Structure formats: structure tokens, C-alpha cells
User: Fold this.
Amino acid sequence: SWICKEVLFIGATMRHSPYKIVEMFEETMADYTGAPYAVSMNSCTNAIFLACKWAAVEGKDVIIPKRTYLSPPQSIMQAGGNLVFEDIEWQGIYQLKPFPIYDAAKRLTSDMYIPGSFMCLSFHIKKHLKIGKGGMILCDNLDAVRWLKARRYEGRTDGMKYHEDMINEEGWNMYMSPDQAARGLMLMQNYPEVVEDIPEGPPYRDLTEFELFKGVRVI
Assistant:
């Protein structure tokens, strides 16, 4: 792991890195969902943000349902996208149109991955896999995987020591911690193969009710 190579224990390199468990959790989630790759994050909110940054939404319209949680629209705005609301019903998953990005916070079942997409998962205590905090991006683009792994950890290069790395792009502190991954891996040991989407009750508020989104166009 790119983090573990710097970890020292009583002056000597550790035989086992605690961050190996993060890679194990990512591999497990990829296998379960049918995705070629899974990149863990510290939240679904940040997963959506980084997916939007990779997709270069800046200056472009990004259309989402006007009834969803507060964080996805803010992630779009913070990534530079022009937020547009659509008056539609949805369950479990919705697309950030026209980009191949999906907010899948309320879905976690086997073989759910949509080829060519970036599916953002949530491990909040109210979601399927109740880690308490954390998220993940499922994708099938290896270039994107490398980019996402660097951006979630201050722009650092995967597999390179901090003192040897030449950081050339900005990043953020958005990586998953080993304790979160360990809990996720334990929960997956008895997780069902087929799981229904989580219904929202009571329903999400209309986001146009909030002052923050008053000027957002609705289609």
C-alpha cells in the first residue's frame, strides 16, 4: 500500500501494514458488486465529489432529482458543476446526468455494477453496510482508479514514499481508515447476496425549499 510503506515500528519497517485491510475490503466489494475496481473513500459525499472532478463537470450542467439528500448537490457545486434539478421519482440509485456517475447510497446488492459507470456507495450507519462512516467508488477505468487513489490522499503517487514523491496535482484528505475497512470486511462476511434498496421515509425534502438552492433551474 502507498500509505503503509512509510509506517515504522520501533525504528524498523512493519511486516504488515494496517492499510492492507483497506485493499482487502476494496477487493471484496469489487467482487461482490461485479465491478472491476473499487476505490474506498471516507464518505459517499466525497466519492461523488471526486467522481465529478474526474468527469470534469466544471462549467457543465449536472442534472439530479430535486428530492435527494443535501450533500450530493453541494458536491456537484463544489466540483464546479452547474446544478440542475429534475422533478422525478427515484429509488435506490440515480444518475448525475449526463455523466456516468451514480449516487448509489441506498443500494448494495450483488452484481449491481453498471459497466462504464462510477457508482458511489455509502457506508453510513443508516445505509446497508453499517460501518458508521465511509464510502466507495465502483468503476472499470484503471486510469481513473490511479487518479482517484492519488486525489483521495493529497495527490500522492500510489506506491511511492512521501519523501520521494513529486506531487504535481492537488488532492484531498479523503481516504478510508483501516478500522473502517476492517468493520466493513467483517460485516461483509454475513452480508446477503440479494438485498432490496432502502426506501426513504419520510421522503426527502424538495431541495428548492432551501435558500442555498433557490436559484437552481428545475426541469
Summary: The first strand starts at residue 8 and ends at 9.
